[in-house]
Amino acid sequence: MTRSQAHTIVATYLGWSLDAFDFFLITFVLIAISKTFGVALVVVTLSITLTLSMRFVGSLFFGPIGDKYGRKITMVISLVFLAFFDTLVAFSPTITVFLILRALYGFGMGGEWGSGFALAMESLPAKARGWVSGLIQGGYPTGYLLAAIVYLFIYPRYGWRPMFYFAALPAIAVIYIMLTTKESPVYNEFKKNASFKQTFRTIGKHWKLFVYLSILLVGMNFVSHSTQDLYPTFLEHQLHFSPTYVASIAIAYNAAAIIGGIISGIISQNTRLGRRWSAISFLIVGIAISPIWAFPEIFGRSSLIYMAFLAPVIMQFIVQGAWAMPGVYMNERSPAEARATIPGVAYMVGVMVASTASTIEVLVSSMFHDNYSYSMLLLVLIVFPLTAIMWFLGKESKNAKLDVAPA
C-alpha cells in the first residue's frame, strides 16, 4: 500500500468518525434537552428523525456533485457544512431552532459517506477493501465513543450545551484531507466526461440495483439505530445508572464495535463467506443474544450491573460486524459513473426510513408502562431476520473490478 493510499484510509476514517461524533452527541442528553425546553421526550427524539431524514436530501444533493466534480472536494464541503450547523446547536434559544439546526446538520451529513467511501474503495487494491471497509465503517462507533467521552467529562459539570462546542471537530478532518489526500484514480479516469446527465442516466440503467440496495440499507439502518439510539436513555431512565456508568458502558461497546467491524472485514475478504454470508452470520448471532441485551437483569438483579455492561458490548460487536459489509458491497456493485450517488443515496434512503426507530421504541414502550426492553427486543426480532433475508437475495460482490465500464 502506498503512502497516498494510507492517507486516504485515514482521511475517510477520520471524516466518518467526526461526522458520527456530531450525530451521537444528542443521544446522551435527550432527557436533559427535553427538560431545558420543557417538552416531552418524544419531541426531542424527533430531532433524530429530522437529522436522519435530511441525510437523504443531502445525499441527493451531494451524490451527483461527487460524481461530477470529484469525491474529495464533495467530502470536504459536506464536512464544513455539517460542522457549522451542529456547532450552532449549542446556542439554540428554542426547541424549534434546535430542531431546524439539527435538520441542517443532517443535510450536510448526507454528503460525507457516499463521497468518502467511493474515494477509499476506488483508491485501494482489491485485497484491502474488506478490512478497510470494516475500519472506515468503524468510524461510526468511533464517533459514538468520542461522544461518550465528551459526555463523561463535560455534561456532569457543564450541562449539554457545551458538548456541542466540540461539534466543530470535523474541521480537523477537512484540514487533513486537503493537505494529504489525492482524488480517486477511477474518478480521474472518467472526469472529462462526467456530468449530471451521465450520472442520472447510469442510475436509470441500474434502477433495479438501486432499489435492492435501498431496501437492504433500510434493514441495515434499522439494525443499527434500533440497538444504538435509545440505549443510553434506556440505561439512564430504566436501569437508573449514573451518567458516568452510562458513558463507560457506551465507550466499551463502541470499542468492541470497532473491533467487530475490522474482524468482519477480514473474514469477508479471506474466507469463503464473502460479503453476504459474513453479514448474515453476524445478524444470526445478534438474534440469538438479543434477549440478554434487552433484559440484562435476566439472570437476576445481582448480575444486572455486569450484564448491562457485557450484553451491549457483545451486541455492538455483532452489529458493527454486519455493518462492515454495506460500504464495500455497494461500491463493488455500483458503476463508477454513479458510485458517489447510488451507494450514498441508497444508504440515506435506509437512514430516512430507519430514522423512526427511536421514536417507535419510545411509543411502543408506552404500551408496556415505559419499559424499553420490550420495544427494543421486538424491533430487533423483526428487523434482524428480514435484513438477513435481503442479504441472502443479493449477489456476491467480493473483489469486483471498480474501474470505468467500456463506453
From TrEMBL:
PROSITE patterns registered for this protein in UniProt: MFS, SUGAR_TRANSPORT_2
Molecular functions per Gene Ontology: carboxylic acid transmembrane transporter activity
Compartments (UniProt record): Membrane
Superkingdom of the source species: Archaea
Main location: membrane
Keywords assigned: Membrane, Sugar transport, Transmembrane, Transmembrane helix, Transport
Gene source species: Thermoplasma acidophilum (strain ATCC 25905 / DSM 1728 / JCM 9062 / NBRC 15155 / AMRC-C165)
UniProt KW Transport keyword: yes
Name of the protein described by the UniProt record: Sugar transport protein related protein
Ligase keyword on record: no
Transmembrane segments: 12-33, 39-61, 73-91, 131-154, 160-179, 207-225, 245-267, 279-299, 305-324, 345-368, 374-393
GO cellular component: plasma membrane
Residues of the Major facilitator superfamily (MFS) profile domain: 8-398
